[in-house]
Amino acid sequence: MTQPPADPKTDPNADPGGYVTVSSRIAYRNPWTAVREDIIRRPNGKTGLYGVVERGDFVVILPVGQDGNGEPTVTLVRQYRYPVQAYLWELPMGMWEDRPEAPPHEVASGELREETGLRAQTLVHAGILYQGAGYSSQKGHVYLATGLTQGPPEPEDTEEGMTCHTIALSRFEDMIRTGEITCMVTIAAFGLVKLKGLI
Fold first, then answer.
1. pLDDT tens digits, one per residue of 116-137
2. What pTM was estimated for this model as a whole?
3. CA angle, corner 145, sides to 192 and 57, nearest 5?
4. How far apart are CA 70 and CA 56, in angstroms?
5. Which of 76, 108, 115, 146 is the right S-S partner for 59, CB 3.0 to 4.6 Å?
């Protein structure tokens, strides 16, 4: 049955878009992800079902250094992604499921060290992005890492087989243009940092 449309200005149950959550339940949960199933009333008054993937905030880091000639470099990781059954080139990224309250800059520093062994003298927060706002609440923090020094990587068990590669920035851009890099987060993070004039 269609209900009168919700007005976010007058209906205390309506969200900023005019949606009302009639009921909500967790349909599935593991240490990394929860799937929430909501019965909603849309702004037009009709009811519907919405599935939301809940995940904690993540970070993605663009590590920019220099080669022996002073030319800019980018450090990438390559790893197997089971859901798409393919090896992908990606920027270092991740989340701390066991410490969801950790500040993003701390997570960024830790993920960079774990995946690449790099320590950054400077981490600049370039902005945020949503990985899939049509189905997920997960928010990402984008960082530019500079002043890099190399140490040993400290990979987690889930990062088995991950390899680390430092390449010319120009080569990285070519890999995006030619479709060799297909990771949406990697491409978006690079675009954000570049458009802000940080590199």
1. 999 999 999 999 999 899 999 9
2. 0.90
3. 65
4. 38
5. 108
